[in-house]
Write a structure and sequence with these properties.
It is found in: Membrane. The chain is an alpha+beta fold. It has 3 domains: 140 residues, Beta-Lactamase, CATH 3.30.450; 82 residues, Helix Hairpins (Orthogonal Bundle); 139 residues, Heat Shock Protein 90 (2-Layer Sandwich). The protein has 7 helices and 11 strands. It has a 5-stranded mixed β-sheet with strand order 6-8-9-11-10, covered by helices on one side. It has a 4-stranded antiparallel β-sheet with strand order 1-4-3-2, covered by helices on one side. A two-stranded antiparallel sheet has the order 5-7. About 1% of the residues have low confidence.
Length: 422
Amino acid sequence: MASKQPLLRRIVIAFVLMTLVVSGGLSLSIVASVHFVEEHLVSQELDRELNIVIQEDLHRGQRPRVDSSTRFFASHLAEYAVPQQFAQVRNGFSEVVEGDQAYYAFKRTQNGQVFMLVQEQNEFEAREQVLFDVVLAGFLLSVVAAWGLGWLLARRVMAPVIRLANQVRHRDQLHALAPALAPDYPDDEVGHLAAAFDSTLGQLRQTLERERLFTSDVSHELRTPLMIIASSCELLVEAQGLSPRQREQVQRISRAAEEMSELVQTFLMLARAKPEESRQGGSASLAEVADEQSKRWAPLIEEKGLQFQLIAQGVDSAQYNLTFLRTVMSNLLRNALHYTEQGGVRLILDTGGFRVEDSGVGIPLDQHEQMFQPFVRGPEARGEGLGLGLSLVKRICTHQGWAVRVSDLPPQGSRFEVNLQG
C-alpha cells in the first residue's frame, strides 16, 4: 500500500535512512577493524615475545625478559605456575576480563608443556573505549545532521511543488481569466506538471462552459413549450363536453408539465458552480413546503387506497431554498407512493428536518447506499422512472449541505430522513 506520509517528510526519512545505513555500516566497520587489528597485531607480538622467552631465556637458564605489564607462566616451572584464572584459556590469542581488569593471553602447548604470556590491557581498553565513544558520537551526530540537511534540501526541492499546490488550492483556476501556471516554472518536471495542469484545466473549462450553455439553452427552450402545455391544459379543463376520463388525462398532463418545469429549474440551479450562488427559486419554511406537497400528493396517495398523514413534531422557522426543498420532498413522497401497496405514508416534520415513512416493500440493508446512485432501482421497481429520483435528492442535499439517509421501518417499510441542518 502506498505511503500516506507527506512527500517532504518521505524525502527527509529517506535521507536519514540512507545516512543510518552508510554511517552505521562505517561505524561497524571501524569497530570490526579495531578488533581485528587488535587481535592480529597483539597476537603476533605476544607470539614473538614467547618465542624469545622459550628459545633464548629459558634455554640459557635466564629469567624471562618481559616488560612490567607482561607476565610469563609455564606448567612445568613451579615459580611460573599458571594461575587458576588462566587455566582454561585456549591455545593461541585470547582476551580475559575479570571485573575491572582486562588481559591479553597467548598460550602455546609444546611437548606436553604449557607456556603462556599474559599482558595487562587496561590502558589499551580505555583508549579503545574512547575510540568507540567517538565513533558512536559521530554516528549520532551524522544522523542528526542528516535530518537537518535532509529537511533543508527537501524544502528547497519541494518549494516549487508546494508553490504550485498553493496556487492550485487558493486560486480560482476555473475562472476564464485565470493566468496559466506553466510560464512561472522552468522547463523541468514541475514545469511539465504545471503545463499538464494548464492543459487539463483548459479542457475542463471548455467542458463546463459547454455544460453551462447547454443547461441555459435547454432551460430557456423548454420553458416555452412547457408554458404552452400548462396553459393548454388549463383551457381544456375549463372546456365543456369532456368526459371524466378525458378530464383525468388532462390533469395528468398538467401535473407532468408542472413537475417537468420544476425539474428544469432544479437542474439549472444545480448546474451553478457554488451553493451560495443558488439564490433563485425563492425561499420558504419547512411547514409551508410540507403543506404544499401534502395537498399535491395526498389525493394521489389516498386514491391508491393508502392513508396519508402530515405530522408536526417540532417547529422549524428557518427559511430554505423553495425549489430544492420542494424537489427533495416531492421525490421522496413520489417514491413512497410507488413502493407502497397497503398501509400508508407519513410526512413527519421536526425541528431542522423531516421524515417520509411508508409501509411499502422496504429496501434491503445492503442496498441502502446504492439507492442514491444514478439509475439504481430497487428489486421491486415500480412506476416508469429511470432510478434518478433518489440520486437527485442526494445531489441536492450535498449541494445545500443537507444530509439524507434511509433506514428500515419495522415491521415493514422504509424511512427517509432529511436533516436540513447538515
